[in-house]
Amino acid sequence: MKRIILGVLLSCTMAVSHIATAAGFTIEDIHIEGLQRLTSSQAFAELPLQVGDQADERSLAFATRSMFKSGYFEDIHLEHDGNLLLVVVQERPAIGFIGLEGNKILKTEQLRAALEAAGLKEGEIFKRATLAQIELELERQYNRQGRYAVLVESTVEELGENRISIDVKINEGVTSSISHINIIGNDSFSDEDLVDLMSLQMPGFWTLFTKDDQYSREKLTADLENIRSHYLNEGYVLFNIESTQVAISADKTKVFITINLAEGAQFKIAKLSIAGQYDIDEADIRALINSSSGQVFSRKDLVNAADDVRKLFGDKGFAFAEVRPVPLVNENEKTVDVQYQIRAGKRTYVRRIDFRGNTRTSDDVLRREMRQMEGSVASMADITTSKLRLQRLGFFNDVAVETAPVTGTDDQLDVEFTVEEGLTADWSIMVGYNDGEGAFWGGSVNQNNFLGTGNKMEASFSSSSSTDEYKFSYLNPYYTVDGVSRGIDLYYSKRDYAKVDVSNFATDTVGADVRFGYPINDDSRLDFKVGYERIDLTLGAKPAAEAANFVALEGTKYTQLKSSINWNSNTLNDYWYPTQGSSHTVNLDLALPSSDLNFYQLGYKYRTFTPLNYTESLVFSAGARVGVLGTYGSTGTTPFFANYYAGGFGSVRGFAFNSLGPKDSTTLDPLGGQLLTTASAELIFPLFNDMPSVRTSLFVDLGNVYQSGEFTTSELRASGGLNLSWLTPVGPLTLVVASPLRQKDGDKTQSTHITLGSSF
Predict the structure, then answer these.
(1) What is the CATH number of the domain that holds 68?
(2) Nearest-angstrom CA–CA distance, 262 and 183
């Protein structure tokens, strides 16, 4: 057999292919030898020759180059024996394993995901450039975290069967912090004003928690957009960021940022106009446009006005209305003409309202909270209100709403609410600690959403050093279809006040209530309650004079017929962690005639939340509480055991539980008072950006309790500190670190408070 070897020498990466030369031949068969992982089909797919083709030196050289380009082969030889084409290949090794060592800041799963996204994963063909790619991608991941001193080294080992392993050792180095931010070209605003707009900051106290001194390209891009938006909102229409330089120190631990600006001139509004066809009074539209001729141009005002006008149309049923503000810049006059172009479209109707994610709660419970009805005109205000009402139920961790046009129509849409069921404990055993009460234990069957019906049921008992309490309550918030609620309460408690640092007495109380609630509107309601209560009072060995005098006049056993009226208005946007809105509560508890003790308690409680930035991560909150205890009828003595107390969590933090106010002259035990006044202000901020279940705040508290008619501002106490809340499956766990800001001799202070079940 005569064999002709075509000698064509090709150099591609590490391989050299030898191709026999001949005058040419017709390929009658093709054999490929040397395959290990690749199938014959895969190999033939890379060979640009097939049976029947005419082969010569040129076509064989082209075929060799084409197969090398696939990246699968280390070496390729093309030979022929007569009309048989023989392809002998040596495959590149495959990556059998990629090992990562030394990474602590970034998780192995995160780094592997980044490598796979870059096409670097186990099972892929190993190429000479693979090591450099792996090292570069890993360094890129650390650079995004502000670490530029990272060192990545890779080694390759044979595994057999034409496979290799890559072992990667990572030295994460230290975090590169921003040493200086230099802004050039800003004449209208100071460096400090512009740096305050940035999330990237130079090292300081807060950056220990926020890590904002760590450079990130993504953060810088967002910061530049914030600066650009600021200038456009202040009328600098031609503003431009000319360049940005980021320099890193030789040891890669410090970052220097330089931003070059071109401010341009400040522009004002010349003319405002509205164009389009619509069925809404133009005066209503203009009332939402805050800008006027001669005013400094602001892109923010432009966008906000367009959103407000779009919302107005949405509330009127034009769900697909388009509102586009078009600015026309006159560079010579330094003015801007603004035209709001409106395309209202048809009035839109809701075809269907659907719910998703409510695996435990029945659809009826969600549907009765709807203010948007199926078949009626679509109102964005009603849809938003419906979402807010679902959030306030406290059943769900999250509520989202989407609207979608109905296919084939231009005047219908579907509304879909998606909820995430919250955690509930049908049965629970409680062991814990509460500020003022100390250690406690108990058990409960507690359902705010009983069997998914939306009804509330609680059966519980608890025991601590001072209190034994048993309670059963049931509430149907929709006893009638229009939202009238009905509930019952049965309870028994035995409380030793001496063990909570109050005057030396104890009470045994048993009672029952029936209550009804009436909705006034979507945000407020009236609740009424009537009930019976029996109180047995026991004085200690050394009772306070006030307690002894009261028992001498009224005895130790009291039968009470109770009633109460409660008005509540609530616009808060969340049940546990609100960020905006307010709540007002006015409550009157009144002992009815024929009761042994004729007294009343009148109280008012207020709380408001105001976001300070658009992400609502920074929130200001303020609140106040006032309570008055008094008597009516023939008796002129208020029951001392109904007094208000102040101090501790929920009152004036930084002082011991129930310790403020009047004290017994002999025992110095707190007596409480007939008048309560407290107030607080808080700045809520994120301590951990990736932990929404944690809320932190700096606070100032003010307040005290007084005997009737003895209020004076000189007796007010004040404190300040840090409040940390963590939303656990059974409610917020709160830790308070506080210090008195205004106190007097004899006050009992307490630097820490711990409680479970209340967030503010």
Answers:
(1) 3.10.20.310
(2) 11
